[in-house]
Amino acid sequence: MKSFIATVSLILLIASTGLAQKKFERISSQEGLEAYAKWGTAKVDGQKKSVILLKLINTNDSAIVYSLDVEFFFQGKRVEAFEQESACIDGGKTHQGKLNGLYFYSETLSSEQITSDDFEYVITVTPQGKEGKCD
Questions:
Q1: What is the pLDDT of residues 2-54, one digit of tens each?
Q2: d(CA 134, CA 36)
Q3: Strands, DSSP E only, in 6-114?
Q4: Distance from the first to the final alpha carbon of the chain
Q5: CATH of 2-131, one of 2.60.40, 1.20.950, 1.10.10, 2.50.20
Q6: Is the pTM above the cut of 0.90?
Q7: Could you say which DSSP state residue 100 is in?
């Protein structure tokens, strides 16, 4: 249920803020794991691309394991999906953007399609439990 609420909140956030967003916006907060997203640019295969950058903050004292799903939709149809089944972030730590592999871009849609009103994305971050420390 929490994931559903976070997903619905994210869709509403996208609709209200647009793609020009430059500051990280909170998309969910569950079990001490805060998730933020923003649009940015990154060089991918020598080309500058629009990317979604994520920032995850573990406010717990102990590590937390989580899964991550990112879905891209164009004209109401899912065109791409990215899934990270299990990852870990130590207590009090932040993972952010390209440095930690938390950026996503479309391999099939053009820049014009991504910036159109027909494009949407959904990010779901799901805490899976706490640990003492990540491996």
A1: 555 555 445 544 544 454 557 999 999 999 999 999 998 888 889 888 899 99
A2: 21
A3: 25-30, 33-44, 47-58, 63-74, 77-89, 94-96, 103-104
A4: 29
A5: 2.60.40
A6: no
A7: G
